[in-house]
Design a protein that fits this description.
This protein is of the alpha/beta class. About 35% of the residues lie in helices and about 20% in strands. The strands form four sheets. The protein has a seven-stranded mixed β-sheet, with helices on both faces. A hairpin with a 6-residue loop joins strand 11 and strand 12. The protein is globular and about 70 Å long. The structure holds NADP nicotinamide-adenine-dinucleotide phosphate.
């Protein structure tokens, strides 16, 4: 008899873990608190990055495997406890990602108009549990935006805010999001890096796209792309850094496009010190930084103020603890060794595993999660081999059936497929691939009306 495993989270790392486990003969139930699968592929990858989003077509095929089930609309920790999972499965693999945001820790951070990129992304991708700022209202008044952080999420946000309505029309963003973005009077978008261009964490392909938008000009001050010795060393060491600096240096010499709808300005060596405003954001104070002779980042004493009415804090995602599972508060991850969850004495807890962002922290591309999940599954299968895992006496119990019996509206693969069909039909009616259904009640209705969950 193959082992039975519960995977918690149906994003890329969860589905790659399910695939690797199923390859080894395991029966796998993939739990998700949302009624639809794919995690950050659906609710994180930028809607205009169609080729990256198409990874979901590959992930979707995993549901066709014998022995892999989607257990959607079930929240682990409330609808079902960790203890119940441990009793019903030989092993539990946590792959629930990093759904919160890191803080900037500057005065004014909580003023209306200071928002987390995680919120803006959740809104524009149509996350059904989105409860953040009312962007449909906020964006009607926003002319100038500062996006803090120079990672790929920051670049996604700058691009989505700077693209013309025509450039976004083909995406699967909900219709109200497209209408709000099209009507937003955004004219200035600032991208803010606290260190230099050689230390930015965005990748060159993503950066270059900002310079290729239909109706947006890009600008960077030549002083910001001058390399000091610390940055020269960084460029010599990293091809990505060298390519990024090359693109930005070209921007510094570009002929301005004053007539473009949006002006994008990249700022480097600019550390936010304060978000300014009485009742809402009116500006961002920045201090000019520099590397000293030891390569440490220091304040030069120069201050600058940007007049902005929206600040998007894009300084990284952060994982959240799950009751009953060890958690490293300082890093926002589940402590592990080779994917085996560790207790307070650094001893592996038999039957508990972790993969993806909640294991490594929020970094890497989608493919990184495959390698990560495969490593974890390798450890799990070693533990099966050595007899640590796989001793559960099978009493024929099916936790998913028990959840149904308790009245939990579990969404299975047929329910997801029903949603998928409707989203594609709505897309086809508008000449595009899909329109995301963002309302949880509607998702549930679509998922359950013709397909009692299986
Ligand atoms: P990230 O790459 O870690 O970038 C975070 C940025 O925030 C860095 O520039 C960091 O600067 C800055 N930062 C952190 N604390 C700050 C502070 N207190 N003040 C000012 N700046 C601060 O994170 P991310 O952009 O959220 O992306 C997460 C992961 O998803 C990354 O691996 C990314 O590549 C991936 N992703 C990929 C794509 C794609 O492939 N198209 C798209 C989106 C996301 P320092 O370096 O100075 O700390």
């Amino acid at each position: 008899m193959g082992i039975k495993v519960a995977v918690v989270g149906s994003g890329p790392s969860g589905l790659y873990a399910a695939e690797a486990l199923n390859d080894q003969g395991a029966v796998v139930d993939v739990f998700d608190k949302l009624p639809v699968p794919f995690g950050l592929v659906r609710y994180g990858v930028a809607p205009d990055h169609l080729s990256i989003r198409s990874v979901r077509n590959t992930l979707d095929r995993i549901w066709d495997r014998e022995g892999v089930r989607f257990v959607g609309n079930v929240e682990v920790g409330s609808d079902v406890t960790i203890e119940e999972l441990r009793a019903a499965y030989d092993a539990v693999v946590f792959t629930y990602g990093a759904s919160s945001d890191r803080r900037l820790a500057v005065p004014g951070e909580d003023l209306p108009g200071s928002v987390a990129a995680t919120d803006l992304v959740a809104w524009y991708t149509g996350h059904p549990d989105y409860r953040g700022p009312d962007f449909d209202d906020l964006l009607r008044r926003v002319r100038s935006v500062a996006v803090v952080g120079v990672g790929n999420v920051a670049v996604d946000v700058v691009r989505v805010l700077s693209k013309s309505p025509e450039e976004l029309a083909h995406t699967d963003m909900p219709e109200h999001v497209l209408a709000t973005l099209a009507a937003a009077p955004v004219a200035q978008v600032h991208l803010i890096g606290r260190r230099g261009p050689a230390q930015a964490s965005f990748t060159t392909k993503e950066l270059k796209e900002l310079g290729e938008l239909a109706d947006a000009g890009v600008f960077v001050s030549p002083a910001d792309v001058e390399l000091d010795s610390t940055s020269e060393a960084a460029v010599a060491e990293s091809k990505v850094a060298a390519r990024n600096v090359k693109v930005l240096s070209e921007w510094a010499e570009r002929v301005p496009r004053p007539d473009a709808r949006v002006q994008i300005t990249a700022h480097f060596f600019a550390r936010p010190t304060q978000i300014i405003g009485d009742n809402e954001v009116t500006g961002l104070e920045l201090e000019r930084t520099a590397f000293d002779s030891d390569g440490s980042l220091v304040d030069t004493g120069e201050r600058e103020r940007l007049d902005v009415d929206l600040i998007v804090r894009s300084v990284g995602y952060r994982g959240l603890a799950l009751t009953g599972v060890p958690f490293d508060e300082s890093r926002g991850v589940i402590p592990h060794r080779d994917g085996r969850v560790l207790d307070g004495t650094n001893t592996p807890i038999a039957g508990l595993y972790v993969a993806g962002w909640i294991k490594r922290g929020p970094s890497g591309i989608i493919g990184t999660n495959k390698k990560c999940a495969v490593q974890t599954v390798g450890s799990l299968m070693e533990d099966v081999e050595s007899g640590v895992v796989g001793n559960r006496s099978d009493n024929g119990r099916d936790l998913v059936e028990e959840l149904h019996a308790r009245g939990v509206a579990v969404v299975g693969v047929p329910g997801w497929r029903a949603v998928d069909r409707v989203e594609q039909q709505r897309g086809a009616a508008l000449g595009k691939e899909r329109v995301t259904v963002h309302d949880r009640a509607e998702l549930l209705e679509l998922a359950t009306q013709s397909h009692p969950a299986t």
